[in-house]
C-alpha cells in the first residue's frame, strides 16, 4: 500500500459500545469506509470521563491518572506534571523499529482502539476519540514499525506511534500515500492535535488492537484461500485421473467434522459432470485408492476450516472486549486488571499458521505428482512441451517447495516464548504481535502455493484434451486463460505465477467456479 492513493469507501461504520463485525473492520481497514461515533458512545465516554476528572482532584494516587507507569507506578505524580506524564508516555513508547507496517493493519488497529474508547471504559474525553475518528476519515495513517510490541500490555509501541500522530508528532502517510510530518497532514485535514488529559496517553496505548486487527484480516483471507485450495485439489484430482468416490457424503459422515463435510461437498460440486472423471469410471479402472494428498484433501482442508472457526470465536470475543488498564467502571471505580494480556489472540494466531502451512504442504505434493511422469498417468514430464528442450513447470514446483519450507518454519509458535521486561514488572508477555506478523507471511505464502497448483493443474487439464474437465473446473481454466496462455514451449513463468496468485487472492478463481456450482463454502 505504500505510495498508493487511498480511496474512501461509501459505507459509514458506526462505532459505539457494541462489538464491531468482521466485515466492518475489513471495510475500514481495506476499503477506507468512514467511521462515526454513536450518540451512546459519546454519552458513555462523557460519563466515565467525569469520574477521571473527579479522581484526578483527589490526593489518593490512581494508576494511570496520578502515578507513573509499569515499574514506575510507585511514584505519585503532582498535578502540574500530569499533562507532561501523558505526553511523555506517548513519546517514549513510540520506540518501534524496522519496516513500515501495512496501511490496512494500522487502520484496523486505529479502528479497534477507537471502539474500545467508545466502550466508555477507558476514561478518555469524547473529543479525543473524535480526533482519532477524524484521522481515519482523512485517510491519514501513522507510520508504525514492524518491531516493538511484546503483546503485553497489549501492542504498546505500535499504538504509541498512532497516538504520536494524534498529538501532531512523528510521521504519517496521507490519503495519497505520501510520507509527511504528522503536524502538516493534520493541519491540511483541519484536525487539531490532541492535548492529552489525565489517563489519555495510557488509554490510547494499552490494547491488543494490532494483533486483533491482523487476526480479523487473516480470517477473511483464509476463508477465501481454503475455498481456493478446494478448487485446486479438485482440478488436480481430475488432471491425475483420480477417483471422486472417496468424497461421497456418506463416507464423510462417518467422521462428522464440520469442516471436512464442507470441503468434501465443495469437491463433489467442482468435479460434477466431468468428462475426464467419467472416462475412467468403468470396471477396468484400477484407481481405487489415490495418494493421500488427493484422497485426504477434505480431511486436511476441513481441519483447517475447523481451526479457522475456533479463531473466529476467539476474535469475536475480543471484538466485544474493552481492553485497557486501568478501566473505569460504571460506578466510578478505576481498577487495574490483566485483560491487556494478548494470550487468547496470540494462541489462535499461532494456531492458524499450522494448518495454513499444512494446506500449502499438501498443495505442493499434489503439484509434484502432476509433474512426475511416473505418477501422472500419461502426462508429459513436468508438463513440458518438448521434454528435455523444455522444462515446463519444473521450477514452479521448486518455488512452491521453497515457500512451503518457509511456512513450516513460521508455523513454530511465537506465543511459546516470553522475555521479561519493565524491571520484571511485566515478567510474562504474549508475543502476540509476532504471532500476527508471521501469520501474515504464512497467508501470503499459502496464496502463492495454491496459485502454482492451479496454474499447473490448468495446464494438465488442457493436456487431457480432447477430454473436457467439468463445467466448474473448466470455468476456472477459462478464467485463468484470460491472463495466462495455455500449454506451449517454455516462456517467462514468473509473471504467470504472479497473475495466478492475484486471481487467487482477489477471489476471481473461486468466483469462476461458482458461476457453475453456486456459492462454495
- Using only C-alpha atoms, the radius of gyration works out to 26 Å
Q: How many structurally independent domains?
A: 2
Q: Trace the largest sheet across and list its strands.
A: 4-6-7
Largest sheet: 3 strands, antiparallel
Low-confidence regions: 1-6
H/E series? EHEHHEHHEEHEEHHHHHHHHEEHHHHHH
Total count of helical runs of at least 4 residues = 20
* SS elements, strand count: 9
Q: Could you say what the CATH architecture of the largest domain is?
A: Up-down Bundle
Task: Name the CATH superfamily assignment of the largest domain.
Answer: Fumarase/aspartase (Central domain)
Helix and strand content put the structural class at mainly alpha
Helix content: 40-55%
> What spatial form do the alpha-carbon principal axes imply?
elongated
> In what range is the share of β-strand residues?
under 5%
Mean of all residue-level pLDDT scores: 93
CATH class membership of the largest domain: Mainly Alpha
State the distance separating the first and last CA atoms.
Answer: 29 Å
Amino acid at each position: 500500500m505504500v505510495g498508493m492513493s487511498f480511496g474512501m469507501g461509501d459505507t459509514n461504520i458506526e462505532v459505539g459500545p457494541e462489538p464491531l463485525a468482521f466485515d466492518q473492520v475489513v471495510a475500514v481497514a481495506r476499503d477506507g469506509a468512514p467511521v462515526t461515533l454513536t450518540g451512546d458512545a459519546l454519552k458513555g465516554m462523557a460519563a466515565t470521563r467525569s469520574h477521571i476528572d473527579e479522581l484526578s482532584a483527589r490526593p489518593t494516587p490512581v494508576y494511570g491518572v496520578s502515578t507513573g507507569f509499569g515499574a514506575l507506578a510507585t511514584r505519585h505524580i503532582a498535578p502540574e506534571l500530569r499533562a507532561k506524564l501523558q505526553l511523555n508516555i506517548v513519546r517514549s513508547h513510540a520506540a518501534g523499529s524496522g519496516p513500515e507496517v501495512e496501511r490496512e493493519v494500522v487502520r484496523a488497529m486505529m479502528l479497534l482502539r477507537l471502539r474500545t474508547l467508545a466502550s466508555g471504559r477507558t476514561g478518555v474525553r469524547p473529543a479525543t476519540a473524535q480526533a482519532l475518528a477524524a484521522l481515519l476519515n482523512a485517510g491519514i495513517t501513522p507510520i508504525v514499525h514492524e518491531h516493538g510490541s511484546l503483546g503485553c500490555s497489549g501492542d504498546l509501541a505500535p499504538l504509541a506511534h498512532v497516538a504520536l500522530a494524534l498529538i501532531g508528532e512523528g510521521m504519517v502517510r496521507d490519503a495519497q500515500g505520501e510520507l509527511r510530518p504528522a503536524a502538516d497532514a493534520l493541519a491540511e485535514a483541519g484536525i487539531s492535535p490532541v492535548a492529552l488529559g489525565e489517563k489519555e496517553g495510557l488509554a490510547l496505548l494499552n490494547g491488543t488492537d494490532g494483533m486483533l486487527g491482523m487476526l480479523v484480516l487473516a480470517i477473511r483471507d483464509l476463508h477465501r484461500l481454503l475455498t481456493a485450495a478446494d478448487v485446486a485439489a479438485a482440478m488436480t484430482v481430475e488432471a491425475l485421473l483420480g477417483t471422486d468416490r472417496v468424497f461421497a457424503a456418506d463416507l464423510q459422515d462417518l467422521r462428522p467434522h464440520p469442516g471436512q463435510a464442507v470441503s468434501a461437498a465443495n469437491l463433489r460440486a467442482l468435479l460434477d459432470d466431468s468428462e475426464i472423471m467419467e472416462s475412467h469410471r468403468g470396471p477396468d479402472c484400477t484407481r481405487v485408492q489415490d495418494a493421500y494428498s488427493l484422497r485426504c484433501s477434505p480431511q486436511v482442508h476441513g481441519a483447517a476450516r475447523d481451526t479457522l472457526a475456533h479463531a473466529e470465536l476467539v476474535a469475536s470475543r475480543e471484538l466485544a472486549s474493552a481492553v485497557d488498564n486501568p478501566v473505569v467502571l460504571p460506578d466510578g471505580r478505576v481498577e487495574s486488571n490483566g485483560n491487556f494480556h494478548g494470550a487468547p489472540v496470540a494462541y489462535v494466531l499461532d494456531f492458524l499458521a499450522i494448518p495454513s502451512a499444512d494446506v500449502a504442504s499438501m498443495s505442493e505434493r499434489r503439484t509434484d505428482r502432476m509433474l512426475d511422469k511416473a505418477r501422472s498417468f500419461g502426462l508429459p514430464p513436468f508438463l513440458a512441451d518438448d521434454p528435455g528442450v523444455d522444462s515446463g513447470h519444473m521450477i514452479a514446483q521448486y518455488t512452491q517447495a521453497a515457500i512451503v519450507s518457509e511456512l513450516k518454519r513460521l508455523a513454530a509458535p511465537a506465543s511459546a516464548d516470553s522475555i521479561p521486561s519493565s524491571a520484571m514488572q511485566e515478567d510474562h508477555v504474549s508475543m502476540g504481535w509476532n504471532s500476527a506478523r508471521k501469520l501474515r507471511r504464512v497467508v501470503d505464502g499459502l496464496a502463492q502455493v495454491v496459485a502454482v497448483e492451479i496454474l499447473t493443474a490448468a495446464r494438465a487439464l488442457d493436456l487431457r484434451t480432447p477430454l473436457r474437465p467439468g463445467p466448474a473446473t473448466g470455468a476456472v481454466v477459462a478464467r485463468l486463460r484470460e491472463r495466462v496462455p495455455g500449454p506451449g514451449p517454455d516462456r517467462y513463468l514468473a509473471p504467470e505465477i504472479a497473475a495466478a496468485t492475484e486471481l487467487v487472492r482477489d477471489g476471481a478463481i473461486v468466483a469462476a467456479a461458482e458461476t457453475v456450482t453456486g456459492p462454495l463454502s
